[in-house]
Amino acid sequence: MTVYDVQIGALGGGPANLAQYRGQALLIVNVASKCGLTPQYTGLQKLAQEYPGRLAVLGVPCNQFGGQEPGTAEEIQTFCDANYGVTFPLTEKAEVNGPGRHPLYALLTDVPDTAGNAGDVQWNFEKFLVAPDGTVAGRFRPQVQPESPELADAIAAVLPA
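The structure corresponding to this sequence follows.
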């Protein structure tokens, strides 16, 4: 099973259809509107625009960390549009940890970060890089900025031609 096989809803309703990203690199990030790391939306949007057709960014709103994503789907979308010009897709709100963990994150959290630690997501804006074949190629903790050389190198290593 790969991330392409997991069902998750789109923020605006209907399925997010992760299979549409097959053949591209995909960066999946749990996001929140009221977090100190929220300005990372700027870098994520830049990444989404930098590699059209080769890298997709997918935001997964999550309210599990300090209640920092309390809004409705419409409020989340409006916030992202108005404050960061986000054009990359967002899914429905999902739990990334605990007994209600979404199946997407059950798959993602099995992958260790660069220090060799797998398991629970630490906070908002944790990033998972998926290779074009659907395998999880890297995990980057929340403090890793979208513009960081560490993430840029990992993305470059999995980008399709």
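Helices lie at 40-50, 73-84, 103-108, 149-158.
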